[in-house]
UniProtKB/TrEMBL annotation:
Name under which the protein is recorded: Dehydrogenase
Ranges of residues in domain GFO/IDH/MocA-like oxidoreductase: 131-255
InterPro entries: Gfo/Idh/MocA-like_OxRdtase_N, Gfo/Idh/MocA_oxidrdct_glycsds, GFO_IDH_MocA-like_dom, NAD(P)-bd_dom_sf
Statement: the UniProt record of this protein carries the keyword Oxidoreductase: yes
Length: 332
């Protein structure tokens, strides 16, 4: 049975979603919806038969649509996810799913109330090296996880790499929310517990003139007593450069993932993605469809996405206050 999808969004990452969806057997991109008809038409042209539109409400509520892939700017995630849920659709929503826990809970209520699947696009879980790391943890190779250190550096074109809304903490949630949810979701997934306290520090590095500091460190304490240190920097001067190191210490041993050991990553402009990233978005969307059709258990549970979002919001508050922030009952 064909699974028909409306893609909400017409930006660069919406394009990546359209390209990934068109590779999946049994999936049809039926509508591409956004506020700019020209951009919607450009993306729709990538898939035979896809219809561009600026009538997002109709594209989301169309009875012929099975699922809605929400990948527009973050302020638009909650409204269109809720609309899709109320229309009885399965929903995939890009990270960060929302800008507040209240909004996220409304999204979950709308989609689950229609007995449909809601999945947040945590692409890192579907990267081969990270998936293998999790599998080894599940096999018991490290025992009970106690300490996690994530170092995550990437090259970005500063200061022209982000648009205005991404640099506005009110619209993007700030760096820990906009980008930090990748690492925080990974921490929640690996540590098997909810964060309870976050302490952060941010600073400008290569892009000192940017309104949003390009680097931050977070210290995250979990309910089970485990600890995670997250170091994230978007200021490498080479566009396309990517370095990540994950060290997970458990009661029986240590697991390590290090992209610096992968061939090709030291070249100035490697043409192919590193092995640890290859094909992750297509696998992520294929899994969403399979979960929506009841063929696979959902890998990214809303409760985990909620915990990561709460930690990201607390991290942004800590950056502004300079103090550790406990995640309150309203954020858990």
């Amino acid at each position: 049975m064909t699974f028909s999808v409306t893609v909400v969004g017409t930006g660069a990452f919406a394009r990546e979603h359209v390209l990934a969806l068109r590779t999946l057997d049994g999936v049809r991109v039926a509508r591409v919806a956004g506020t700019d008809l020209r951009q919607a038409a450009e993306l729709a042209a990538l898939v035979p038969g896809a219809v561009p539109t600026t009538d997002i409400a109709s594209a989301v509520a169309d009875p012929a649509i099975d699922g809605v892939d929400v990948c527009n700017a973050t302020p638009g995630h909650a409204p269109w996810t809720i609309a899709a849920g109320r229309a009885g659709k399965h929903v995939h929503v890009e990270k960060p799913a929302a800008l507040s826990i209240e909004s996220f809970d409304q999204m979950v209520e709308a989609v689950h109330g229609a007995d449909r699947t809601l999945m947040v696009g945590q692409t890192v879980r579907f990267q081969p090296a990270v998936a293998e790391l999790h599998e080894r943890l599940e096999r018991g190779d490290a025992g009970v996880p106690r300490l996690l250190h994530i170092t995550w550096y990437t090259g970005h074109v500063w200061p022209g790499g982000w648009r205005g809304w991404q640099l506005d903490p009110v619209a993007s949630g700030g760096h820990p929310v906009h980008n930090g949810t990748h690492a925080l979701d990974l921490a929640v997934w690996l540590m098997r517990s909810e964060p309870v306290e976050v302490f952060g520090r941010d600073f400008p590095t290569f892009a000192a003139e940017m309104p949003m500091p390009d680097s931050f460190h977070l210290l995250v304490r979990f309910a089970n007593g485990a600890l995670a240190t997250i170091e994230l920097c978007y200021a490498l001067t080479q566009p396309g450069r990517f370095l990540r190191r994950v060290v997970l210490c458990g009661t029986n041993g240590t697991l390590l993932h290090d992209t610096d050991a992968e061939p090709g990553l030291s070249t100035p402009r490697h043409a192919e993605p590193p092995a640890s990233l290859e094909g992750a978005l297509a696998r992520q969307l294929a899994h969403w469809v399979a979960a929506a059709q009841g063929r696979e258990p959902l890998r990214v549970r809303p409760s985990e996405s909620r915990a990561a979002l709460a930690a990201a919001i607390a991290g942004q508050r800590s950056l502004r206050s300079g103090r550790p922030v406990r995640i309150g009952e309203e954020a858990r």
